[in-house]
Amino acid sequence: MFPVDPISVLVAFVVILFLVSVYENQKRCKKFPPGPMPLPIIGNIHLINSINPQESFMEMSKKYGPVFRVYLGSQRFVVLCGYDILKDALINHSEEFAGRPVTAIGLKISDDHGVAFSNGETWKVMRRFTLSTLRDFGMGKKTIEDKINEECEYLVQTFRSYRGKSFNNHAIINAAVANIIVSLLMDHRFDYNDPTILKLIGLVNNTVKVLESRMVRLYNSYPWLIRWLPGGHRKLFEIHKELNDFVRDTFKTKEKELDINNQRNLIDAFLAKQLEGKPESKLYFHNKNLFRLVINLFGAGMETTSTTLRWGLLLMMKYPEIQNKVQNEIENVIGSAQPQVEHRKEMPYTDAVIHEIQRFGDIVPGSLPHATTKDMTFRGYFLPKGTFVIPLLHSALKDKAYFEKPTEFYPGHFLDSRGKFKKNEAFIPFSLGKRSCAGENLAKMELFLFFTTLLQNFTFQAPPGAKLDFTPALGFINGPLPHEICAIPRR
Fold it and tell me: Could you give the dihedral angle defined by the CA atoms of residues 285, 290, 292 and 295, in that order, rounded to the nearest 10 degrees?
């Protein structure tokens, strides 16, 4: 008799399960999109660049077409490439593509709570509540514009304190942007060096870093095996617990302070809903949904906007002639007054530059994954209910059919022959359809006010001898690598 190695038996068992799964999938869905042959256990992970997965997907689309499938571990995804495909899927078939995948990581962290990763009626109720409540507390109105401008002044003072010397702007810009969403969630503002906001920012930043790790992807395929191993999934669980603890502590404070007749923020409004005594109150307005909703909104409200601003300042250092043109337009339209949202319509060049920063920065290249809500046929392929879908926003923002110089930073993408601002339908950094970003209007307001205020007050330069690197950092969000800037006061 030969000795039996338990590890070999386990590996063989996993391989057999994987092959059977692939075979059953292919037999059941003969009209499923084509794609590369997966390997046992890892699927196609070996074919995907861990830093720029979007580039790997773009290469695959050249071979398999704009609709193809890829395996991440044993999980099968359909990738959609190109603006026309994304528009067809997310607008013309918006209901069918409006789901979120049910994954082992998702169940462990959010368990169908909140707004970002929930489904069905929970998602509809939470999104409806979020949109209406954020509007009630100022999103898109003069009240939130005033709060952003107030925060801009704090940010300018902090930048001035460095007196033109080099510094890393990451934590500072994170904190400034975080304060806007915190004001809507909790009616509060943190100093930039406050340990509470720094801890919260750190937890969100770490989540972004580990979310795309290979161990997280493998956990979704083999949670019963991977859960015992070290890696990004274990780190994600630790972060999740700390975030929940933070929100729970905040909730307890807010619950004691609640005045039903004087609701001042989103948490107040949620707690008031709990006390209404309606069936909806117990079904949807419970603490688990509150905790996850606050985490969703804080993460989404801080990370993408602050990352866009950091790309913007980095690009201004790289292209001083563009920075100069923006500053000239600021001088001509605003002068030394405080920038207001209404100035944007008179500033086509600045508006074009901000749009191009978003396009070039490509902040969320893969979007959040979608899932089909029913069996459907799309572009000749059969997609069963629950199919995981990656709408590759990167492929729209870099679509050669819509952008003249897709790989370059070129504000002309958003200017007509007379120098007037022009829209481009393939510009979809906030995605499309029913799952598009709920905070799009707030983000646009923040980007314009923060960017114009900073360039009104400073000229941004690279530290002497520094080389500017535009390689994105590893993570779910496409952020710049750590770098330092010099903010030279203009007045």
Answer: 150
Element (H, E) at 136: helix 120-136
Q: Is 488 helix (H, G, I), strand (E, B) or coil?
A: strand
Answer yes or no: is pLDDT of 14 > 60.
no
Radius of gyration over every alpha carbon of the chain, rounded to an integer in angstroms: 24
What's the pLDDT at 487?
Answer: 98
The 10s digit of each residue's pLDDT in 246-278 is 878 876 777 777 778 888 888 889 989 988 888
In a 10 Å sphere around its CB, with 0-12 CB exposed, 13-18 middle and 19+ buried, how is residue 374 labelled?
A: exposed
pLDDT digit string (tens) for 178-196?
A: 999 988 888 889 999 998 8
DSSP string, 230-257: -SHHHHHHHHHHHHHHHHHHHHHHHHHH
* 141 Cβ neighbours under 8 A, 6+ residues apart: 135
Q: How confident is the model at residue 22, as a pLDDT?
A: 56
Q: How far are the Cα atoms of 18, 119, 279, 292, 305 from residue 123, in angstroms, in the given order?
A: 32, 5, 17, 12, 23
Q: Give the residue among 374, 399, 391, 378 at the shortest CA–CA distance from 432.
A: 391
Share of residues in the chain with pLDDT > 90 (%): 60
Task: Judge residue 100's burial from the number of C-beta atoms within 10 Å of its C-beta, 0-12 exposed, 13-18 middle, 19 or more buried.
Answer: buried
